[in-house]
Amino acid sequence: MDRIADRLDPISDFELVLRKVAHGARLLGLGWWVSLGFVTLVDGGAANPSWIVVSIVAALAWIVTAVAVYRVDVSLATSRLMVTGDLLLAGFSLVSVTRPLADSAVSVYGGFPMLVVLVAAIRAKTQAWVTAVVLAVITGGLILAQAVEEPSVAQPISRIFVYVGGAFIATWAVGELRRSDAEIRLARDELARSEERARISAHLHDSVLQTLALIQKASDRSQQVVSLARAQERELRSWLYEDRADAPASFADNIRSGAADVEERYGVPIEVVTVGDAPGGQAIDALVGAAREAMVNAARHSGAEVVSVYAEVEEGTARIFVRDRGRGFSLDAVGEDRHGIRDSIRSRLDRHGGSATLRSDDRGTEWTLEVSR
User: Fold this and answer.
1) pLDDT tens-digit profile of 327-351?
2) What total of structural domains would you count in the chain?
3) What is residue 174's three-state secondary structure?
4) Which contiguous run of DSSP H or E holds residue 323?
5) Domain for residue 150, yes or no?
6) CA 45 → CA 36, 106, 107, 370, distances in Å?
7) What pTM value is reported for the model?
8) Does 372 share its domain with 289?
Protein backbone atom coordinates (compact mmCIF):
# COMPACT_ATOMS: atom_id res chain seq x y z
CA MET A 1 0.00 0.00 0.00
CA ASP A 2 0.94 3.67 -0.27
CA ARG A 3 2.36 5.54 2.71
CA ILE A 4 0.11 5.50 5.77
CA ALA A 5 -0.03 9.30 5.71
CA ASP A 6 -1.53 9.08 2.25
CA ARG A 7 -4.55 7.36 3.77
CA LEU A 8 -4.85 9.15 7.08
CA ASP A 9 -4.29 12.80 6.13
CA PRO A 10 -7.63 14.64 6.01
CA ILE A 11 -8.62 15.81 2.55
CA SER A 12 -11.04 18.51 1.49
CA ASP A 13 -14.38 17.86 -0.20
CA PHE A 14 -12.89 19.12 -3.46
CA GLU A 15 -9.97 16.65 -3.27
CA LEU A 16 -12.49 13.92 -2.55
CA VAL A 17 -14.32 14.83 -5.75
CA LEU A 18 -11.04 14.67 -7.71
CA ARG A 19 -10.40 11.18 -6.40
CA LYS A 20 -13.87 10.11 -7.46
CA VAL A 21 -13.16 11.55 -10.92
CA ALA A 22 -9.90 9.57 -11.03
CA HIS A 23 -11.73 6.37 -10.12
CA GLY A 24 -14.35 7.02 -12.79
CA ALA A 25 -11.69 7.79 -15.42
CA ARG A 26 -9.87 4.56 -14.57
CA LEU A 27 -13.02 2.47 -14.96
CA LEU A 28 -13.91 4.29 -18.20
CA GLY A 29 -10.46 3.52 -19.64
CA LEU A 30 -10.64 -0.11 -18.59
CA GLY A 31 -14.06 -0.33 -20.20
CA TRP A 32 -12.52 1.03 -23.40
CA TRP A 33 -9.80 -1.63 -23.18
CA VAL A 34 -12.26 -4.51 -22.73
CA SER A 35 -14.50 -3.19 -25.53
CA LEU A 36 -11.51 -2.87 -27.86
CA GLY A 37 -10.55 -6.47 -27.16
CA PHE A 38 -14.02 -7.87 -27.84
CA VAL A 39 -14.43 -5.79 -31.00
CA THR A 40 -11.07 -7.06 -32.25
CA LEU A 41 -12.00 -10.68 -31.60
CA VAL A 42 -15.30 -10.27 -33.41
CA ASP A 43 -13.64 -8.36 -36.26
CA GLY A 44 -11.08 -11.12 -36.70
CA GLY A 45 -8.31 -8.63 -37.46
CA ALA A 46 -5.95 -9.80 -34.71
CA ALA A 47 -2.83 -11.67 -35.75
CA ASN A 48 -2.74 -13.47 -32.38
CA PRO A 49 -6.18 -13.67 -30.67
CA SER A 50 -4.72 -15.29 -27.53
CA TRP A 51 -2.94 -12.03 -26.67
CA ILE A 52 -6.26 -10.20 -26.92
CA VAL A 53 -7.87 -12.67 -24.51
CA VAL A 54 -5.02 -12.21 -22.04
CA SER A 55 -5.40 -8.41 -22.21
CA ILE A 56 -9.16 -8.64 -21.58
CA VAL A 57 -8.58 -10.84 -18.51
CA ALA A 58 -5.95 -8.39 -17.20
CA ALA A 59 -8.32 -5.44 -17.65
CA LEU A 60 -11.20 -7.23 -15.88
CA ALA A 61 -8.90 -8.20 -12.99
CA TRP A 62 -7.79 -4.56 -12.57
CA ILE A 63 -11.43 -3.42 -12.61
CA VAL A 64 -12.20 -5.76 -9.70
CA THR A 65 -9.08 -4.56 -7.85
CA ALA A 66 -9.87 -0.86 -8.42
CA VAL A 67 -13.46 -1.22 -7.20
CA ALA A 68 -12.36 -3.13 -4.09
CA VAL A 69 -9.71 -0.54 -3.21
CA TYR A 70 -12.15 2.32 -3.80
CA ARG A 71 -14.66 0.78 -1.42
CA VAL A 72 -12.00 0.50 1.30
CA ASP A 73 -11.01 4.18 1.03
CA VAL A 74 -11.91 6.71 -1.66
CA SER A 75 -8.58 8.50 -1.22
CA LEU A 76 -6.72 5.35 -2.33
CA ALA A 77 -8.02 5.90 -5.88
CA THR A 78 -4.96 8.09 -6.48
CA SER A 79 -2.49 6.33 -4.20
CA ARG A 80 1.02 5.79 -5.53
CA LEU A 81 0.45 2.03 -5.72
CA MET A 82 -2.72 2.37 -7.80
CA VAL A 83 -1.25 4.95 -10.18
CA THR A 84 1.90 2.81 -10.63
CA GLY A 85 -0.33 -0.20 -11.31
CA ASP A 86 -2.23 1.84 -13.92
CA LEU A 87 1.04 2.73 -15.66
CA LEU A 88 2.30 -0.85 -15.72
CA LEU A 89 -1.04 -2.08 -17.01
CA ALA A 90 -1.20 0.64 -19.65
CA GLY A 91 2.28 -0.33 -20.87
CA PHE A 92 1.22 -3.98 -20.96
CA SER A 93 -1.91 -3.08 -22.89
CA LEU A 94 0.11 -1.27 -25.53
CA VAL A 95 2.63 -4.10 -25.87
CA SER A 96 0.04 -6.88 -25.86
CA VAL A 97 -2.47 -5.22 -28.17
CA THR A 98 -0.42 -3.14 -30.64
CA ARG A 99 1.30 -6.05 -32.42
CA PRO A 100 -1.78 -8.30 -32.66
CA LEU A 101 -3.64 -5.34 -34.16
CA ALA A 102 -0.98 -4.57 -36.73
CA ASP A 103 -3.28 -5.52 -39.60
CA SER A 104 -6.47 -4.28 -37.95
CA ALA A 105 -8.23 -0.97 -38.52
CA VAL A 106 -8.91 -0.61 -34.78
CA SER A 107 -7.01 2.30 -33.15
CA VAL A 108 -4.83 1.46 -30.14
CA TYR A 109 -3.79 4.82 -28.65
CA GLY A 110 -5.94 6.91 -26.33
CA GLY A 111 -8.51 5.15 -24.17
CA PHE A 112 -7.11 3.56 -21.03
CA PRO A 113 -3.48 4.74 -21.47
CA MET A 114 -4.64 8.33 -22.04
CA LEU A 115 -6.92 8.31 -19.00
CA VAL A 116 -4.04 6.94 -16.91
CA VAL A 117 -2.31 10.28 -17.59
CA LEU A 118 -5.37 12.08 -16.15
CA VAL A 119 -5.38 9.89 -13.03
CA ALA A 120 -1.66 10.55 -12.53
CA ALA A 121 -2.20 14.31 -12.97
CA ILE A 122 -4.76 14.26 -10.17
CA ARG A 123 -2.16 12.67 -7.91
CA ALA A 124 0.83 14.88 -8.82
CA LYS A 125 2.21 16.88 -11.74
CA THR A 126 5.54 14.99 -11.76
CA GLN A 127 3.82 11.63 -11.86
CA ALA A 128 1.67 12.79 -14.78
CA TRP A 129 4.73 13.76 -16.83
CA VAL A 130 6.55 10.52 -15.98
CA THR A 131 3.49 8.52 -17.02
CA ALA A 132 3.11 10.46 -20.28
CA VAL A 133 6.78 10.05 -21.22
CA VAL A 134 6.81 6.31 -20.48
CA LEU A 135 3.66 5.70 -22.55
CA ALA A 136 4.93 7.89 -25.37
CA VAL A 137 8.25 6.00 -25.52
CA ILE A 138 6.50 2.62 -25.50
CA THR A 139 4.05 3.67 -28.20
CA GLY A 140 6.66 5.29 -30.41
CA GLY A 141 9.03 2.36 -30.04
CA LEU A 142 6.36 -0.18 -30.96
CA ILE A 143 5.31 1.76 -34.04
CA LEU A 144 8.92 2.14 -35.24
CA ALA A 145 9.52 -1.56 -34.66
CA GLN A 146 6.57 -2.42 -36.90
CA ALA A 147 7.76 -0.07 -39.63
CA VAL A 148 11.31 -1.36 -40.06
CA GLU A 149 10.88 -1.88 -43.77
CA GLU A 150 9.15 1.47 -44.33
CA PRO A 151 10.03 3.71 -41.39
CA SER A 152 7.46 6.39 -40.63
CA VAL A 153 8.34 9.36 -38.42
CA ALA A 154 4.97 11.11 -38.49
CA GLN A 155 3.01 8.29 -36.85
CA PRO A 156 5.14 7.86 -33.70
CA ILE A 157 5.44 11.64 -33.32
CA SER A 158 1.65 11.99 -33.44
CA ARG A 159 1.27 9.28 -30.79
CA ILE A 160 3.90 10.94 -28.58
CA PHE A 161 2.12 14.27 -28.97
CA VAL A 162 -1.13 12.70 -27.75
CA TYR A 163 0.40 11.70 -24.41
CA VAL A 164 2.62 14.74 -23.87
CA GLY A 165 -0.16 17.14 -24.89
CA GLY A 166 -2.61 15.24 -22.70
CA ALA A 167 -0.24 15.52 -19.72
CA PHE A 168 0.10 19.27 -20.24
CA ILE A 169 -3.67 19.82 -20.45
CA ALA A 170 -4.45 17.52 -17.52
CA THR A 171 -1.85 19.02 -15.16
CA TRP A 172 -2.85 22.58 -16.10
CA ALA A 173 -6.58 21.92 -15.64
CA VAL A 174 -6.15 20.12 -12.30
CA GLY A 175 -3.78 22.84 -11.08
CA GLU A 176 -6.23 25.60 -11.98
CA LEU A 177 -9.07 23.77 -10.25
CA ARG A 178 -7.00 23.34 -7.11
CA ARG A 179 -6.00 27.01 -7.09
CA SER A 180 -9.62 28.07 -7.48
CA ASP A 181 -10.67 25.76 -4.65
CA ALA A 182 -7.92 27.16 -2.40
CA GLU A 183 -9.05 30.74 -3.12
CA ILE A 184 -12.67 29.85 -2.37
CA ARG A 185 -11.71 28.17 0.93
CA LEU A 186 -9.57 31.14 1.94
CA ALA A 187 -12.43 33.54 1.18
CA ARG A 188 -14.87 31.33 3.12
CA ASP A 189 -12.52 31.16 6.12
CA GLU A 190 -12.02 34.93 6.07
CA LEU A 191 -15.79 35.48 5.93
CA ALA A 192 -16.27 33.09 8.86
CA ARG A 193 -13.61 34.92 10.89
CA SER A 194 -15.17 38.27 10.03
CA GLU A 195 -18.63 37.08 11.09
CA GLU A 196 -17.21 35.66 14.33
CA ARG A 197 -15.48 38.95 15.11
CA ALA A 198 -18.70 40.85 14.40
CA ARG A 199 -20.70 38.44 16.59
CA ILE A 200 -18.26 38.78 19.50
CA SER A 201 -18.14 42.56 19.07
CA ALA A 202 -21.93 42.80 19.12
CA HIS A 203 -22.18 40.63 22.23
CA LEU A 204 -19.50 42.59 24.08
CA HIS A 205 -21.27 45.84 23.21
CA ASP A 206 -24.63 44.47 24.29
CA SER A 207 -23.38 43.22 27.64
CA VAL A 208 -19.91 44.08 28.90
CA LEU A 209 -19.57 47.62 27.57
CA GLN A 210 -23.07 48.60 28.67
CA THR A 211 -22.45 47.18 32.14
CA LEU A 212 -19.22 49.14 32.41
CA ALA A 213 -21.10 52.30 31.47
CA LEU A 214 -23.67 51.59 34.21
CA ILE A 215 -20.90 50.96 36.75
CA GLN A 216 -19.35 54.33 35.97
CA LYS A 217 -22.68 56.08 36.54
CA ALA A 218 -23.25 54.17 39.79
CA SER A 219 -19.73 54.53 41.12
CA ASP A 220 -21.01 56.18 44.31
CA ARG A 221 -23.28 53.20 45.09
CA SER A 222 -20.90 50.35 45.89
CA GLN A 223 -23.56 47.67 46.41
CA GLN A 224 -25.12 48.32 43.01
CA VAL A 225 -21.68 48.25 41.37
CA VAL A 226 -20.87 44.88 42.96
CA SER A 227 -24.26 43.50 41.91
CA LEU A 228 -23.79 44.64 38.32
CA ALA A 229 -20.27 43.26 38.16
CA ARG A 230 -21.34 39.85 39.49
CA ALA A 231 -24.28 39.65 37.12
CA GLN A 232 -22.06 40.52 34.17
CA GLU A 233 -19.44 37.99 35.24
CA ARG A 234 -22.05 35.21 35.34
CA GLU A 235 -23.42 36.17 31.93
CA LEU A 236 -19.99 36.38 30.31
CA ARG A 237 -18.83 33.07 31.78
CA SER A 238 -22.03 31.44 30.59
CA TRP A 239 -21.60 32.84 27.08
CA LEU A 240 -17.93 31.80 26.86
CA TYR A 241 -17.95 28.35 28.41
CA GLU A 242 -21.41 26.81 28.33
CA ASP A 243 -22.26 24.27 25.63
CA ARG A 244 -23.85 26.14 22.74
CA ALA A 245 -25.10 22.96 21.10
CA ASP A 246 -28.08 22.87 23.46
CA ALA A 247 -31.48 23.49 21.90
CA PRO A 248 -32.03 27.28 21.74
CA ALA A 249 -34.95 28.89 23.52
CA SER A 250 -37.94 29.96 21.47
CA PHE A 251 -38.42 33.36 19.88
CA ALA A 252 -41.02 34.54 22.41
CA ASP A 253 -38.99 33.26 25.40
CA ASN A 254 -35.89 35.11 24.24
CA ILE A 255 -37.82 38.36 23.72
CA ARG A 256 -39.31 38.24 27.22
CA SER A 257 -35.97 37.27 28.78
CA GLY A 258 -34.15 40.10 27.01
CA ALA A 259 -36.81 42.63 28.00
CA ALA A 260 -36.68 41.50 31.64
CA ASP A 261 -32.88 41.88 31.67
CA VAL A 262 -33.03 45.42 30.23
CA GLU A 263 -35.78 46.37 32.67
CA GLU A 264 -33.72 45.08 35.62
CA ARG A 265 -30.56 46.87 34.52
CA TYR A 266 -32.04 50.27 33.70
CA GLY A 267 -35.14 50.42 35.85
CA VAL A 268 -37.44 51.30 32.91
CA PRO A 269 -40.55 49.10 32.46
CA ILE A 270 -40.58 47.07 29.21
CA GLU A 271 -44.06 46.01 28.09
CA VAL A 272 -43.89 42.94 25.83
CA VAL A 273 -46.64 41.49 23.63
CA THR A 274 -45.90 38.42 21.48
CA VAL A 275 -48.08 36.89 18.75
CA GLY A 276 -46.98 33.50 17.51
CA ASP A 277 -43.71 31.78 18.24
CA ALA A 278 -40.81 30.07 16.48
CA PRO A 279 -37.85 27.91 17.49
CA GLY A 280 -34.54 29.63 18.05
CA GLY A 281 -31.85 29.78 15.40
CA GLN A 282 -29.18 32.07 14.03
CA ALA A 283 -31.57 34.45 12.26
CA ILE A 284 -34.03 34.51 15.20
CA ASP A 285 -31.21 35.06 17.69
CA ALA A 286 -29.88 37.95 15.59
CA LEU A 287 -33.35 39.53 15.54
CA VAL A 288 -33.72 39.20 19.32
CA GLY A 289 -30.23 40.63 19.87
CA ALA A 290 -31.01 43.64 17.67
CA ALA A 291 -34.30 44.18 19.52
CA ARG A 292 -32.53 44.03 22.86
CA GLU A 293 -30.12 46.74 21.72
CA ALA A 294 -33.08 48.88 20.62
CA MET A 295 -34.65 48.40 24.07
CA VAL A 296 -31.39 49.40 25.76
CA ASN A 297 -31.14 52.56 23.66
CA ALA A 298 -34.74 53.47 24.50
CA ALA A 299 -34.24 52.81 28.22
CA ARG A 300 -30.97 54.76 28.38
CA HIS A 301 -31.52 57.71 26.09
CA SER A 302 -35.20 58.33 25.31
CA GLY A 303 -36.34 59.55 28.71
CA ALA A 304 -39.59 57.61 28.22
CA GLU A 305 -41.32 56.18 31.28
CA VAL A 306 -42.06 52.89 29.50
CA VAL A 307 -40.88 51.03 26.39
CA SER A 308 -43.30 48.95 24.30
CA VAL A 309 -42.26 45.81 22.43
CA TYR A 310 -44.51 43.95 19.99
CA ALA A 311 -43.20 40.70 18.43
CA GLU A 312 -44.94 38.55 15.85
CA VAL A 313 -44.25 35.51 13.68
CA GLU A 314 -46.25 34.88 10.51
CA GLU A 315 -45.69 33.14 7.16
CA GLY A 316 -42.01 32.48 7.69
CA THR A 317 -41.20 36.04 8.83
CA ALA A 318 -40.43 37.26 12.34
CA ARG A 319 -40.84 40.95 13.24
CA ILE A 320 -40.26 43.02 16.34
CA PHE A 321 -41.43 46.60 16.91
CA VAL A 322 -39.69 48.54 19.68
CA ARG A 323 -41.42 51.85 20.49
CA ASP A 324 -41.01 54.60 23.05
CA ARG A 325 -42.63 58.03 23.49
CA GLY A 326 -39.45 59.77 24.48
CA ARG A 327 -37.50 62.69 23.08
CA GLY A 328 -36.39 61.02 19.83
CA PHE A 329 -33.08 61.61 18.10
CA SER A 330 -31.47 62.26 14.73
CA LEU A 331 -29.47 59.42 13.24
CA ASP A 332 -27.06 61.93 11.69
CA ALA A 333 -26.19 63.18 15.17
CA VAL A 334 -24.97 59.75 16.28
CA GLY A 335 -21.17 59.71 16.33
CA GLU A 336 -19.11 57.26 14.28
CA ASP A 337 -17.62 55.87 17.50
CA ARG A 338 -21.05 54.66 18.67
CA HIS A 339 -21.54 51.07 17.50
CA GLY A 340 -24.97 50.26 18.92
CA ILE A 341 -27.11 51.13 15.91
CA ARG A 342 -24.55 50.31 13.22
CA ASP A 343 -23.19 47.01 14.57
CA SER A 344 -25.61 45.66 17.17
CA ILE A 345 -28.76 46.40 15.17
CA ARG A 346 -28.29 46.97 11.44
CA SER A 347 -25.13 44.96 10.68
CA ARG A 348 -26.34 42.12 12.87
CA LEU A 349 -29.54 41.81 10.84
CA ASP A 350 -27.79 42.39 7.51
CA ARG A 351 -25.63 39.30 8.09
CA HIS A 352 -28.81 37.20 8.21
CA GLY A 353 -30.70 38.88 5.34
CA GLY A 354 -32.89 40.93 7.68
CA SER A 355 -33.78 44.61 7.80
CA ALA A 356 -33.99 47.40 10.38
CA THR A 357 -36.14 50.50 9.82
CA LEU A 358 -35.96 53.51 12.14
CA ARG A 359 -38.51 56.28 12.69
CA SER A 360 -37.67 58.92 15.26
CA ASP A 361 -39.02 62.41 15.93
CA ASP A 362 -40.17 64.54 18.86
CA ARG A 363 -43.06 62.12 19.47
CA GLY A 364 -40.74 59.20 20.13
CA THR A 365 -38.78 56.44 18.40
CA GLU A 366 -39.86 53.22 16.72
CA TRP A 367 -37.72 50.40 15.36
CA THR A 368 -39.14 47.87 12.90
CA LEU A 369 -36.89 44.80 12.85
CA GLU A 370 -37.47 41.81 10.55
CA VAL A 371 -35.88 38.55 9.41
CA SER A 372 -37.01 35.54 7.38
CA ARG A 373 -36.74 32.30 9.30
Assistant:
1) 888 777 665 555 557 767 888 888 8
2) 2
3) helix
4) strand 317-324
5) yes
6) 12, 8, 12, 75
7) 0.47
8) yes
